User: Fold Cytochrome c biogenesis protein CcsA from Candidatus Avibacteroides avistercoris.
Amino acid sequence: MKLLKTASFSLIGVIIVTLMAATVIEKAKGTGYVSSHIYGSASFVALWGVTAAISIIYLIRRNVHKRPWTFMLHASFVIIICGAGITHWCGEQGTVHLRTGDDAVTGFVRDDGTTAVMPFGIRLDRFAVAYYPGTRSPMDFTSSVTVTDGTSSLTADVSMNDIFTHDGYRFYQSSYDSDMGGSTLAVSHDPWGIGVTYTGYALLLLSIIGFMFERKSDFRNLISRLGQKRRLMALAAAVLLIPGAASAADDIGGKVLPAPVAEEFGKLYVYYGGRICPLETLARDFTAKLCGRETYKGLTAEQVFTGWMFYYNYWRREPIIKVKGSKARQRLGIDGRWACLSDFFTVTNGYKLDDIMGGGCPPADAKQLREADEKFNLASMATTGALVKIFPCRDPADGTLGWYSQADDLPAGMEHAQWVFVRSSLNYVSELVAQRDYDKVIEVVRKIGEYQAKEAGTALPSPGKTAAERIYNRIDAPRALGIALLCVGIIGFMHYCRAMSRQRNVGRAADATYLIMQCFALALLTVTLGLRWYIAGHIPMSNGFETMQFMAWCALLLSLAARRRFELAVPFGFTTGGMAVMVSMMGESNPQITPLMPVLSSPLLSIHVVMVMVSYALFAFMMLDGVAAIAMALSRRDCDAQIRRLADISRLLAYPAVFSLALGIFIGAVWANISWGRYWGWDPKEVWALITLLIYMTCLHRRSLTVFREPMFFHMFSILAFVSVAITYFGVNFILGGMHSYA
Assistant:
């Protein structure tokens, strides 16, 4: 028995170490190397198989099969592994390239380069790209195909998130030829593995629900020990089922438009980031990209942006560009963190960063130089007007609507009067600005707005969405909210720990104050997330900024729900929420709110993100719980009872946290299989999520691993295990990369 236990958990440890090493090797040698030498190797497959077999034998020897829900929970993972094995050995994946006008194709190229034969032929009849209304930004790609099977034939469409299945073969839209005359479809033939794997997923969901109500489970014992069984059960179930401008202008030398005039520019529509939005959104992103904030010396973003448009000779000498990294500063010849546009040129007007793409620089230095180069190009595009695509024009040839700047090549054959208006209106505005005739400037800007309404018509965003976006742009909550939440969290943490060490309550007044601040912060995040949802037309969980904002929302909501039964949930909610908000500002202080392709609009993807973010929030609570216990232990007071209680609370949180992560991973796998044809691609984010799941699963086995019964060991584990969560989210995003590095 002891040998079986040692073998089971040791093999899981070997799997964890192997997966960690594989992600590092992939960064150094590439995805192809690890796919063939590690993930696709016979020894790696055998490792999973032996681990599953020994674990099942160990469970049976321990009579776990007498607790049906617990046994079913473990058996579901074995079934999932078996399904993956069947897919590995029997499934086929590859691609087929089709051209309109060609004969039907009866084979496809496997991932390993060999050719597989299909029992039917497939022919491309037509390929089309669907664009977002009023733009040239692709929304969806559709291949219309005909399948010939003997004497019969049928037609079907293959598009993003809309697969075509025939005779056990599934076809997914993968890519297309630049001339729009050809299409590449991903092909998957896995008649047995998917069914077995999906059976394991369904069994996992069913067994998790049953486990929550199993009388002899550790989860129910912890609930009984902590009291208030019904309320804690409801909380756990809920967790698992969550789906100064004027003075600044004087300082700047008057080289800006007055705020009301600049605001008129902000009301215009502009084609930016693949969508049509108010120009103030572009101005806000532009200012944030250059100097790290949405304002500069008290000037609004619109004033900064229009300053570059109409006062270039002044702004090129203004040290507004924030430069990161000593290598980039050294190359530009600046001492501090701020550069002006003139710093990018030599005395002979040579561009100092002209050779950054030539190679020879370490990756970190090259990244710093590229960021500086990007900011230079952004400022240059604003100066030349290339960034200001505010003129909608229809192509006389086919009637399609495009958005142009005055510097772009306009459609051939457009009316002369319209051509003159597009080419000359901003030049006329520039002359009026030089004359300080601001009333006339406003008049001309409004005429441009009238032109936009006439030419674009229904392609423009609705007035409601435009108003919502302008409100969102003015909230500017994340930075201030993050700092406030962190400060309140730290103060509250010390306050609650002090009260617990003295076996007292924090007091009604303090408790009411914390409650009001919790509700206010939660309401503010709800409003901002709701606005983003309405503006973008999809649940705001599509990038790193939005997922971290949602994690902050989850942390505050969970702390609000648990505050009566778990005192430290209050400061934990503030601290976790504050960290999540501040982290969301690191990578993208003001991200684009772009429409999503149908493949990213799936409700499965939203549920996947929700479940994973909830698990991360709970893991963060466990980590902070451990920090609190260690702080109490170091206070030299008699806090053993409080430390044990905190350990029990962390153990209780571990169950919904692990279950949420497991369900999140496998719901994401189902979404990936529906969208891309494979439910697991060994992407670094996927691998580290699996590593995190395996690490935290160990703490649920207190009956086998008795060391987890020790409160202080459990607290130390909770702190150290959270490193894997940090690597899963931040390490992959900023170091390892991969398909999921945006999230």
